[in-house]
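Something for you to look into today, if you have time. I want to see for myself how the chain folds. Leave the record below and I will have a look.
***
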Amino acid sequence: MVRRHNDLDPFIPVARTVSAAHEEIALTRRIALALTLHNHQPVGNFGWVIAETFERAYLPMVDALERHPGVRVALHYTGPLLAWLRAERPEFIARLAMLAERDQIEIVGGGWYEPVLAALPERDRVGQLVRMADELEATFGRRPRGAWLAERVWEPDLPTALVSAGYDWTVLDDAHFRAAAIPEDDLWGSYTTDDQGKVLTVFGTEQGLRYRIPFAEVDDVIGYLRDHATEAGDRLGTMGDDGEKFGAWPTTWDHCWGPGRWVERFFEALDANADWLTTMPPSDWTVGNRPVGRVYLPTGSYAEMGEWALPADEGLAFGTALRRARAEHRPEARWLRGAIWRNFQVRYREINDIHKQMLATSALVETMPPGPGHDAAVDHLYAGQSNDPYWHGLFGGIYLPDLRVANLRNLISAEDLAVGDAAVSGVLRDTDLDGRDEVVLAGPGQFVTVKLEEGGGIPRWDVRAAGHPLAAVVRRRPEAYHETLRAHETAGHHDAEGERTEGGAPASIHDIVMVKQEGLLDHLTYDAYERRSGLIRILPLDTTPEEAAAGLAEELGDLRDGAWTIDAVDDSRVRAVRAGSVRTTDGGSVPVRSSRTWEIGGGRLDPRLELRVEIVHDGPPDSSPIEAIVGVEWSTMLLGGGGNPSAWLELDGERTAHDAIRRATGITRLAAGNDFLGIAIDTTTDHPIDAWIGPIETVSNSEAGFELVYQGSATLFAGPVRLRPGERWTLGITQQVSVAAERSGVRAEPAGAGAAAAGAGGAIEADPEASEVHAGLR
């Protein structure tokens, strides 16, 4: 008996009997196998994390290839990883060059900083692709013919950029072909597609192979290939997937390289069956083999990405329906698809903000004259396009603060080089492309936008000299995987290391449930509003700091969420007003008039941001008083999670970590900073007021499991207020920033093992004291 799998869902075992006669006939048939391994480390990752992944996945694979010269594969290393390898493991690059020289491996290209090409302007698509081709030619002596698409995100116009940049082929998901009505049995080969006269060859990574390698038994993989062999030898099985799943994903090292020796046994089997099973890179197949046919593929990615791009409740329902249809072998499973990748810009305001900032920065860089400044700005721009913070799924994405901040830092640096001292301030511009203008205030040391809708808060506050996004916080939202966590915790903890398939191999990373810390269910709280700075809060008098921090406090007014109107604006100041209402203790509501004035000042290393708030009870003389806690909420990101000692909060002369909870009564000053970043903020108020300070933390899922992730700190400057008709409440807040030294606008070179992203266009160097880390394997 040979253990087999059903093609529709490779996780469902099916047994079959293979007769000796069948085996003898099968040996006369032939087939080719194209393995393409994608290896990626994101801009902003820690050098020691890259080093660990190198030891567990990248190095063992090359070791195995050198032991088996008859096994030929394609290897893709993204730009940040290649730069790290060149700086930290040059001998590894030399070994890759030797393998390429003897035609055992094909080096695959793509976008240099691993952007999702569909998200970029055409000029940047081509620029990223050409940059990678140039780098690979300089390193390995030949230009790549194939391009890896980040997250296999495809849109029908991509052939234009790919072919224009000199590429012949790419690998897509079987889901793309399924959506184009290509039968499963016709996926064993290549297809052509075209756009604007540019013809591109596309290979589909076959689902049965992708799920079997390396999770099924070696004999099962060989038997599966034998089943699809033909006497003409005109079939190619393509498996393109992450190289990190060969040792760096949870539980896979023992299976692939340790006691399980899966890769070694697989390569031995490929050698033993080389008379009918040929391994070759995709480019070799295009020489002498005709494509199966023409195909036009709709916009899409792999199936899980479509699920993640849906709203949480829709994603949960879609995932349940898809898995049920597969389990029941229902034919409609092949037509079930989720949202397209661009929908992440709808799901997450923060992703849309980064994306639109990137587009605006790209337009500015395009206007620069040629020269070193332009080259440095382009490098920062490209690094800011690295795909990881532009989406979210199993692999962290926007919830990983070091990656989010690294991208934004590069975009800030690129913009700073492009505009210099000519930054335009006091203008209205639709910065997030929602059809409504925001206010832009820009000075020599900072860039600030005010979102007039949704409470009139600050979504962007950049310190230009430090290249740091102070407003880069993330809202706590429901995620579909929170239900997985609830079910897991309710059922009781179990050892993820013991999660195995029926054959004893590690379970898929999509199925493993791991929890990195206790008590996460207590932190599954959500925000009913976007966490921008300067929002006005009006809360019941009995609200506790814990309720406010957990997002459980009732909002009595509409100043936090309503739209504001510009009253006055100039180069350094904007005044906005709103006529709103506040609920009173007797169950009614009274009108209020409110104004806010934002003003910027200071220089390159000492930018200053001031906010003055006024709320007037505008009801008639006989109306009820306003009795509430009234205040202003300010949220900032200084990479202070995990008790990072480089980041500090100073209150009443005592310094604590950013993710500590602090309470103070009647203060006029507090301070915060991160010595590693070289940034300090001195905050003062114009009269004594209470301060409730706490972390914004999300329960997020990643390769390493569920964990609490610091997304920024929020301070509520507030106090109890009783306003009678005609009375007013005011508060003035001054944020004085100090930057230790100029850090932006410098083209970064590979930063080494102690850096967050070697060669990542100036990505933040890793703070050796920081404890927020992740595998960064996508």
